[in-house]
Fold this protein.
Amino acid sequence: MSSLKSVLFVTRAADTSHAGFDSAVTLARHHEAGLSILVLTSDDIGLAEDVGFAEFNALIEEEAQHRCSELLSRLPEGMAARSAQVRSGKLFIETIQAVLGEKHDIVVKAAESATGLMARLFGSEDMHLLRKCPCPVWLVGPDAALPPKRVLVCVTLDEREGADATLNTRLVDAAIDLLPKAGEAEVHILHLWNAPGEYLVRSQRSGLSAKQVEVWVNAIKLKHRSWFNHFVKGFAGRAELRSRFAKGSPEFGIAEVAKEIDADIVVMGTVGRSGISGLLIGNTAETVLGQLECSVLALKPVGFETPVRSKG
C-alpha cells in the first residue's frame, strides 16, 4: 500500500455513520492519494406501496444526493474529492466494478452488522466484498481509532503449491502504512503455528513413543520459529514492532490476541493461494471474521481473480 494513489469510500445512502469516511479521509491524506466517494441507493422498496413509482425514485435520489453532500462537507479545508457518484444496484457488485473501471487501490467502508442469532460485526455485503474484491478492503468498526494506534497483522508459513510468497510481506507493509507519521503506535506481528495431525500422532495407533512425538513437534516448532524470526527482522526500524509467536489455531487464536491487546484493526489475508477465482473466502478467514470486534483490512494474494466482470 506504500504506492497508494486512489482510495474509494463506499457507503449506503441511508448510512449516517462517519467512522468509515473519516478513516478514508485520514488514509488518503496520509498517502497524498485521491479520494473518491460512491453512494449506493437503498434497495428497500417498501415505500413503493405508499407512493407512486416516480415519487419513490425521487425520494431515493434525494436521499443519496444528501448523503453525498453531507460527506463532501466533512472534507478538511483544502481537500477535494476526486469524484462523488451515486449508483443503484448490489453494493458489492457496483463497488468491484468501480474498482476495476477506475483502478482504485483500496476500498474503505463502514462495517455492517449482521442480525439474528449469528449476529456479528460484518454483514453479508461485507463478506461479498471480502470474498470477491480484487483490491484491499478496509471495513471500519463503529468505534475505530483514527488513525489506528494498535495494529495486529497475521502471517503464516504457507508452503502449499501456488501459495503467494509475497502475501506476508504485503500484509506487514499494509499494517505499517496504516500508522500515523508521528506519535505512539505499534504493529503486533502474530504467527500461530501447530503440528498438523498431532492428535493422531499422539494416539496409540501411531505406534510412536511420547519422546518421538515430542521430537517431531519440537522440530516443527523450530522450523516455524526460525522462519518467523527471519521474517520479522526484515522490518526492523520501520515501526514500533512487537512479535508474537505461539502455538494455536488461527481460527480462534487471532480473535483472542486481538481482544487481548485491544487491537484497533486486524490485517489479514483472505485467500492463501493465487490463481483462485474469488467464489469462496478462505475457511480460516471466515471463521476469524465471525469473532472479531474491531476493524479489518483484508488483502488478496497476487494473481487473485474476481468473478465480477467490469462494465462494458
In short: The chain has nine helices and ten strands. The first strand starts at residue 6 and ends at 12. The domain at 6-299 is CATH 3.40.50.12370 (Rossmann fold). The longest helix spans residues 210-233.
